[in-house]
From TrEMBL:
Residues 243-436 form the SGNH hydrolase-type esterase domain. Transmembrane segments: none annotated. SUPFAM superfamilies: SGNH hydrolase. It holds the Pfam family Lipase_GDSL_2. This is Lysophospholipase L1. Residues 197-214 have a biased composition (Basic and acidic residues). Residues 39-60, 175-218, 286-305 are annotated as: Disordered. Residues 45-54 have a biased composition (Gly residues).
Length: 462
């Protein structure tokens, strides 16, 4: 439409409409502008960014990494922890969940950031990747005992298999941690800084890189994480697989160089087109039990996390985008220990039924995994119970799919043991064993077709 050469009538008509339109717009926008930012709840329902919601659709929100917290160990000194996590799929608009689930007093986080780790084994960040994390619009947050919270989303893009660095400063807070001694500098792990708030440091001058093991000394700590247990984001992936397990999922003793089976599974899935991929979240805790019982290794309740049924909600069901759960627990129940006797097969199977029914009621498909050899005496009660559990997993009809880890790693000459080339100790596979476990998984149990990218693979039990 062309303007009138004189234009005065158009200006007059615009002025008549401008005032009421302005009043209407102000009345609509004022509540939005004046309202405080919505806090992201621990259930993962807060977003704060534009885009589609729900499970499955393109760029929906999904967990892309997890590492379950397992207990409370001491008080944080005046240091910053830089937790290192690896994204299993690409994502943006990232959120971080932090928690004080086992705290005996409130935990105050004075500052928090997220960035991209520049190199494995070093604390420095990719230039211009640092983002400040806020919680309900505030940089500082205090969590009561038992409380968890998601950060507000930040516009940081991470690629599949790229490492994230989540830095938290909470001196004096009870340390809620995830620990296991892994064999490599690959995640999970953390750097503890020299004294002070170094959350915004992009270099590594304040983060010593010497291996300090499981401790509160400045340096690198393989397998040790403080307070952070989930990272999620907007992703083209179709949701997430969550592996609920014990030390054979968390990766204890995976010696010999290499990643855990969950990390290797994620790499296999990354060969698929982005929209067909599923993220992989690791909810393994060393020493965990699948049934409700006293922990066989720790009477304090701070070693090995709550029994799987009691942590199922926070560690699996509450994760955004969760579509599949791999249930791979029972070894510690059947084996027993100093503080609890071996459990019978029926106790493990009943716990599997409860967990599966609860997950399925929330819309997840459940894949059961057989239990690997434990050096039990052939013909003894422990071995009979393990075999009974495995027979139930394979043929009981409870699960939507089965992964036969027992068949993948057992010694054909002595089925009570893991094959020598895969064995770290009687209960745990080494890195080669984890690789064999990952290769044994039929991706069809996750609706992804038998093998990725059409590659021919040897027939294995699945």
């Amino acid at each position: 439409m062309t303007s009138s050469p004189r234009g005065g009538g158009h200006r007059a008509r615009r002025s008549v409409w401008r005032a009421p339109l302005l009043i209407l717009l102000v009345s609509l926008l004022l509540p939005l502008l004046s309202a405080p930012p919505a806090a992201a709840s621990a259930s993962g329902t807060g977003t704060g960014e534009t885009g589609s919601r729900g499970r499955g659709p393109a760029h929906g929100r999904s967990a892309i990494w997890s590492a379950s917290l397992q207990g409370r160990h001491g008080t944080s000194p005046d240091v910053t922890v830089r937790n290192i996590a690896r994204a299993s799929v690409s994502a943006t608009w990232l959120r971080v969940r932090i928690g004080n689930p086992y705290g005996d007093r409130p935990a105050t986080f004075r500052s928090a950031t997220i960035g991209l780790q520049r190199r494995v084994g070093e604390a420095d960040l990719v230039p211009r990747s640092l983002r400040t994390l806020t919680f309900g619009g505030r940089a500082r947050v205090t969590l009561a005992p038992g409380e968890r919270v998601y950060s507000d989303p930040v516009p940081l893009r991470v690629s599949a298999q790229q490492n994230l660095a989540v830095s938290l400063y909470a001196p004096g807070a009870p340390v809620n941690d995830h620990t296991f001694p892994p064999p490599t500098p690959n995640p999970p792990g953390s750097f503890l800084s020299l004294p002070g708030d170094h959350t915004r440091d992009t270099g590594d001058a304040s983060y010593p890189e010497q291996d300090r093991g499981l401790s509160a000394e400045p340096g690198y700590h393989p397998g040790q994480l403080w307070w952070v247990d989930v990272v999620d984001g907007r992703t083209p992936a179709a949701g997430a697989i969550v592996a609920l397990g014990n030390s054979n999922t968390s990766g204890h003793n995976a010696t010999g160089g290499g990643d855990r089976w969950t990390d290797l599974l994620a790499r296999r899935i990354n060969a698929l087109p982005p929209h067909r991929q599923l993220a992989v979240a690791n909810a393994g805790i060393s020493g965990n039990t699948v049934s409700r019982r006293p922990n066989p290794y720790d009477p304090t309740g701070q070693c090995c996390g709550p029994p799987a049924p009691d942590r199922l909600e926070q560690d699996v069901l509450a994760l955004a985008g969760a579509r599949y759960m791999v249930l791979f627990e029972g070894t510690n129940d059947l084996g027993g220990g100093e503080f609890a006797p071996p459990a019978p097969a029926e106790q493990v199977i009943d716990a599997m039924r409860e967990i599966t029914e609860r997950a399925r009621a929330r819309g997840l498909k459940v894949v059961g995994a057989t239990l690997m050899p434990m050096c039990n005496a052939a013909g003894g009660a422990k071995e009979a119970n393990r075999l009974a559990v495995n027979e139930f997993v394979r043929t009981g009809g409870l699960f939507d799919g089965v992964i036969d880890f027992d068949a993948a790693v057992r010694d054909p000459a002595d089925p009570t043991r893991i094959r020598a080339e895969y064995e770290a100790d009687c209960y745990h596979p080494n890195a080669a064993g984890h690789a064999a476990m990952a290769e044994a998984i039929d991706l069809g149990v996750f609706g992804l077709g038998r093998w990725e990218a059409g590659a021919a693979r040897p027939g294995r039990a699945a």
